[in-house]
Amino acid sequence: MLLPIVVYPNPTLKKKCEPVLCVTEELRTLVENMFETMYQAPGVGLAAPQVGENIRLLVMDPNASEEQKTPRVLINPELTLTGETIRSEREGCLSVPLGFRADVMRSSKVHLKARDLDWNIIEEDLEGYPAIIVQHETDHLDGTLFIDRISRLRRSLFDSKVKKWLKKNKNTR
Ligand code: ZN
Q: Which member of 66, 84, 123, 137 is catalytic?
């Protein structure tokens, strides 16, 4: 089932999410729906708060656009930034409207601890594109969007565009 994606400036996106305590049938269904929604969007990652669930859960697939998919579920992910600071170019987000993209500074590597759907502990080092995606998605669980990491000037220009867009949408409804 496709889930509606929560879009900025919806305040839900700013909330810090609660840890997942156990895997239930309900959670498995949510994960299935999140994958369907992410691939359809299309996107390479989706965090639970983006579909209105304020829990520490994310799905991702760096190869979402390839035939050979590599879906991953991360529950209660914890990151340690272990690389050097690099520029993640033209980052975007399914929850950020108007197709806005901007460069964001990220760590080139991360050490990841999380649980999978079988409640096994995952512990590994990621680098490259997967490292960038997991940083972007884990940010969502702390109520942070990539637009919170861009310059104040770019952000205020974007916010005024969003304001105009919201006003226009309101008028056409
Ligand atoms: Zn995002």
A: 137
